[in-house]
Design goal:
Chain lengths: ~300, ~300
């Protein structure tokens, strides 16, 4: 069996390859800056092309391929998923929400374009994502995606995260926040890929469990990196969770136990994949990458 | 032929009837305030139940029925359309956008719940709307709706409206703003109803033209009412367009010519309906209501 480091490296190669193709599609799926309202289109593109691992497109593509999906429609979904992720980042960074000035080493949308444009750019990316999902032609995938994005998913996690700032919280609440804020969209990415490929209900359930585990692991690692990394490494303010009184894993159970929990979740995700009669190599590698990543 | 006043009165009866049924469905389609995140669910409900004519649900239902639609799925769409309208109002009212304190005689979302919750409540309503549309099961309707909501539709109009505040604009720009900001979602409501009923391409084109005409007329009447009404009648600040230097019809062509244009658009909308071999009585009545309404 390959070492976790070797798996992680394979995942990075895979994600880079998908990112390249997905980014070419972003360009096609985003309105041109020459069309009115030009500045809004510029703001949408600015945040979409600010870099990032393109993890959600990578997961959607991996699930789609694993379940035998055919054709080009997956690229509509990869653009939609990255747009939805970017929309959430733009709105989270707003002065009235997290008030962050930098993201991926660049000024945040509202610092660059002003608050009104940032609000609208987020809205526009969210809507554009659903237009692309409509074009992909699978209404069930839209329902599942929206459910995991809304108040029982990502938005619910973000809202609770904001409400809990500076408050005493327990592990149950941090789990709720982390699962909803981060894992839900990761889970949705896998499910959308699976649905577009026509996966069975049973397979969907398995991939959902894998997604929950790696999604939660992803956020715990994020919390750890916020403490142990420098601002330069992260491209955003290191230590900002503590400064803002954010509810994090390490703040409740400490760094060591947080690392153990991430490792356990990794193992759970691999066990989930064991039940699938397909080539799960890429998803195994991505799980390894998620718990070993340093930014 | 019925007088325009009689038609308008019939339309109000129709809209009230649909509103009652649609509002019962809003309650079903909105998350309960007892579910986490409670305050966000409260904010979503607060704005959704702040009143309003429920014009978009009324138009969707009228188109659905006219084209022979069957079953309950239209009520998923009527909830979705009102959620999308409400989402746009919440974000437009934000301090960084239009900075409005009152809407329909009540404090705006951010005045009542704070800015962060208002941003998230808008986002959540937008996402919830697409979940419901996903449940309605027609991916084409989602694509068409999102297109008319996004930067080539409503959001494009809002953004241009913000950018033009206090600037010298011509009629072409005001037409662009009005069509996109207001008419696009009105047109979308009719098209969604038509698509869910299985209307033909040709019928869709006709209903689209009707929608464009009444949508533009609706916004011109809005501009006129902002000048001639009192704050109490409107439930929001009268005269606020002038105060904010908004691009409006009367500010460019004057009140009288604005009224004439609204009348012309009304006539165009009726001519569009003449081409349809269905019972267009309700849509005729709604057009009459739109140009005769006083709030």
């Amino acid at each position: 069996m390959d070492s976790i480091e070797k798996l992680s490296s394979a995942a990075q190669d895979y994600l880079s390859r998908v990112a390249k193709e997905a980014e070419a599609k972003f360009d096609e799926h985003l309105p041109p800056v020459t069309d009115r309202p030009c500045r809004l289109h510029e703001a949408m593109r600015y945040s979409m092309f600010a870099g990032g691992k393109r993890l959600r497109p990578g997961l959607a593509k991996a699930a789609f391929d694993m379940f035998g999906g055919k054709g080009d429609k997956i690229w509509l979904a990869t653009s939609a998923l990255e747009m939805l992720h970017t929309f959430s980042l733009i709105h989270d960074d707003l002065p009235c929400v997290d008030n962050d000035d930098f993201r991926r080493g660049k000024p945040t949308s509202h610092k660059k374009f002003g608050e009104a444009t940032a609000v609208m750019a987020g809205d526009a990316l969210c809507i554009q994502a659903f237009e692309l999902m409509g074009r992909a032609g699978n209404a069930k995938a839209i329902e599942v995606l929206a459910r995991l994005l809304g108040t029982y998913g990502m938005i619910g996690g973000e809202m609770t995260d904001i409400e809990c700032e500076g408050k005493e919280v327990n592990l149950e609440i941090v789990d709720y926040i982390h699962y909803h804020k981060t894992a839900a969209l990761i889970e949705a990415s896998l499910l959308v890929g699976a649905l577009l490929a026509g996966a069975s209900e049973g397979d969907m359930e398995i991939i959902r469990n894998y997604g929950k585990s790696i999604g939660l692991a992803f956020q715990i690692v994020d919390d750890i990196l916020d403490i142990v990394s420098t601002t330069e490494e992260l491209g955003k303010d290191a230590g900002s969770d503590i400064e803002k009184g954010k509810a994090t894993y390490p703040s409740i159970v400490g760094l060591e136990k947080s690392r153990e929990r991430a490792k356990e979740l990794y193992e759970e995700s691999i066990r989930a994949l064991d039940a699938l009669p397909y080539d799960t190599q890429i998803l195994r590698a991505i799980a390894a990458f998620i718990i070993t990543r340093v930014k």
